[in-house]
């Protein structure tokens, strides 16, 4: 993995952890998500227009990615409204690279290396520890977190190909712009205008910029390195977010959950090496 791609992926991890920390702390995560998406789309629109390059062949990838992004943000906002971030985030982010690896192996027929296989096992152990050996997270919360991970894996594989047919920021703007419009329409219908106006805070504004910014950094990295490697490095955000939650005292994080988060990242690193 080139150093430039590594730095871009690490930057994406830091920004991603930051916007998730801000969004998960909102009282109404669905309204906050809608506002954040619209803010991000507006901020990045001028940049996209300046360097506009978009081939017609990109549309199937854009539509597919937008649909998965919409499902992703709906599931994520729902998960944050019913479960602790220290539970949802490591499982969602940790399962994504595993699914990318498996999907890549199934589609291309590539064999899974020993380090990658060990990495999958470590991620699985980490997820068990994060959930709690006695199932502290609950089946519903676990299903939500794993569904978020499946969405991440899906749009990562799609974007790896789609981003070659447009400028990275342009591709980002079109994909997330469509997502923002759809989510805003849904939130307006279900939550109402008053809830959306109340959700306009400095946290949601920064979340929106961070949402787009993290994605832009990841797309740039995908142009320079394999999808599995980029996905793996990005997931270092798991330790970053868990550490902030623990140090800041926002959530009570036991030793098992902290060890689980570290195990997830260690497994992801092995998958990346594989």
The ordered string of helix (H) and strand (E) elements is: HHHHHHHHHHHH
Helix-strand category: mainly alpha
Roughly what is the average pLDDT, rounded to an integer? 85
How many strands in all? 0
Number of continuous helical runs: 12
Question: Which descriptors would you attach to this protein?
Answer:
globular; 274 residues; mainly alpha; single chain
Task: Kindly describe this structure.
- The protein is globular, with a radius of gyration of 18 Å.
- It is mainly alpha-helical.
- The protein starts with a helix and ends with a helix.
- It has one domain.
Quick synopsis:
With 274 residues, this protein is mainly alpha-helical.
Topology of this structure?
Blueprint: H1 3-24, H2 29-50, H3 59-82, H4 85-108, H5 114-131, H6 139-162, H7 168-191, H8 193-198, H9 202-222, H10 227-234, H11 237-248, H12 255-273
Helix pairs in contact: 1-9, 1-10, 1-11, 2-7, 2-9, 3-6, 3-7, 4-5, 4-6, 4-10, 4-11, 4-12, 5-12, 7-9, 10-12, 11-12
């Amino acid at each position: 993995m080139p150093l430039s791609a590594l730095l871009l992926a690490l930057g994406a991890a830091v920004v991603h952890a930051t916007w998730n920390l801000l969004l998960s702390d909102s009282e109404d995560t669905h309204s906050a998500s809608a506002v954040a998406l619209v803010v991000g789309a507006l901020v990045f629109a001028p940049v996209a227009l300046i360097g506009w390059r978009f081939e017609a062949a990109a549309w199937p990838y854009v539509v597919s990615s937008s649909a998965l992004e919409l499902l992703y943000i709906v599931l994520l906002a729902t998960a944050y409204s019913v479960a602790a971030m220290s539970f949802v985030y490591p499982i969602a982010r940790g399962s994504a690279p595993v699914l990318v690896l498996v999907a890549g192996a199934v589609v291309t027929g590539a064999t899974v290396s020993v380090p990658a296989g060990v990495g999958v096992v470590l991620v699985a152990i980490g997820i068990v520890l994060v959930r709690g050996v006695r199932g502290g997270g609950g089946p519903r919360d676990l299903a939500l977190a794993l569904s978020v991970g499946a969405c991440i894996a899906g749009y990562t594989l799609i974007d790896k190909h789609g981003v070659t047919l447009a400028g990275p920021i342009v591709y980002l703007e079109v994909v997330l712009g469509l997502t923002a419009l759809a989510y805003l329409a849904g939130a307006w219908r279900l939550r109402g205008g008053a809830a959306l106006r109340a959700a306009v805070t400095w946290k949601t504004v920064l979340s929106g910029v961070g949402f787009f910014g993290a994605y832009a950094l990841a797309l740039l990295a995908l142009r320079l390195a394999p999808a599995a490697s980029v996905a793996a490095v990005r997931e270092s955000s798991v330790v970053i977010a868990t550490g902030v939650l623990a140090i800041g005292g926002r959530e009570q994080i036991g030793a098992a959950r902290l060890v689980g988060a570290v195990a997830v990242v260690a497994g992801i690193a092995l998958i990346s090496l594989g």
